[in-house]
Amino acid sequence: MSDPLDRLVGSLARTGLTRFFRRMLDDAPDLFLKDLTVEAVGPDRTIRVGGRWVRNFGSDSFLGLDQHPAVVEAVARGVRDWGTHNGTSRAFSSVAPQREAEARVAAWLGTEDAVIYPSVTLANAGALPALATRHDVIASDQHAHNSIEEGARLAKARGARTAKFAHNDPADLDRVLRTLRPFRHAVVAVDGVYSMSGALPPLAALQAVARSHDGFLYVDDAHGTGVLGTRGRGTVRDALGGYDNTLVVGSLSKAVSCLGGFVAGSRAAVDVLKLRSNPLLFGGPVPPPYLVAVCAALDVIESPEYPRLRAALDANVRRLVAGAEALGLTVLGGRVPIVSVLVGGEDATLRAGRFLFDAGYYVQSVVFPAVPHGAGVLRAQVNANHPPAAIDGLLAALSDLAREVPLPAPAADAVAVPA
Fold first, then answer.
1. Cis bond upstream, residue 372 (ω within 30)
2. 314: which of 159, 189, 335, 388 lies 20 to 30 Å off by Cα?
3. Fold adopted by 68-301
């Protein structure tokens, strides 16, 4: 007789999404370009996978800072000075680079304070349950990032009530909050930019509705950090003029190319998170070498080099979007350095990704449940250090793909893929 764990695993493998993915993997193992092993990294965004070199359009190190000499040297310096680990949770102590990195993030954004988590996912999983009690509610945009949804679920398990409102719709937010009454305070959780569609939320209008219902804005700006807004500060400050009645979540792993996520806002709010957020109290923090590297990356972002990196990145995004549209493809996104080409069915999307890989270009084949069923996309993540020739090469491969696989043409009533 098998052990209970074996029976449980077998049962899970036959249900839901696990069965769906297992069937896809069994039916077409060569098409399922997931769980890849990158064997080596080369210059100009090349990687070796399965013994062959391909151009990597799957990296979210948008500014190329993961290969910047100053950032790489900072990691090595951090290891020499601090070792590889903090040795304790932040409930007991923090290393000096932790304090410095948080102060640097706050100064860069223009907030009173910031607190760094090991990832944006942990930030949302830790902050939302810490902010909303059984007397409070969380209203989130229906297209908000999965990690906001997971954070709301944790808060709900601790007594908070949760609901969703129609995408980017302040009037529906007002309706939802009226329906949820009575409550003490409301957390209105949205993305700063919806990465797949490129849509920006109407933050000023959402803030007005939130205030009228004893609520505040909680903005996950992970995809805007470093690549949108003045000096790369994201979407919030430019949209609202500041951070009053707002908490902003950002990434230190994507454009900043280090490790971690942060929540920034008033010093009082950050202090409460430090006392109530479980990942900070019971989990390990970002290792010191990466905190040293965060400061080095912010040195670059706050230097005259940043406008040149941003210009190269924006030019590459425009080049890819314009070229794909000229091919008659349905292009989604492009406000942030994530450009998606609509394919359709799951099988066709996987085959399209494999076609590009065989042509020497790795892009991400994104299928259900990350996108609606039958709305699979090829997602290219554009970097500042992609040579223009790499963009042109990917466009040539897309042109060849369009002759092999029928790709949907743009439609006036096309629905953007949610993040």
1. no
2. 189
3. Aspartate Aminotransferase; domain 2 (3.40.640)
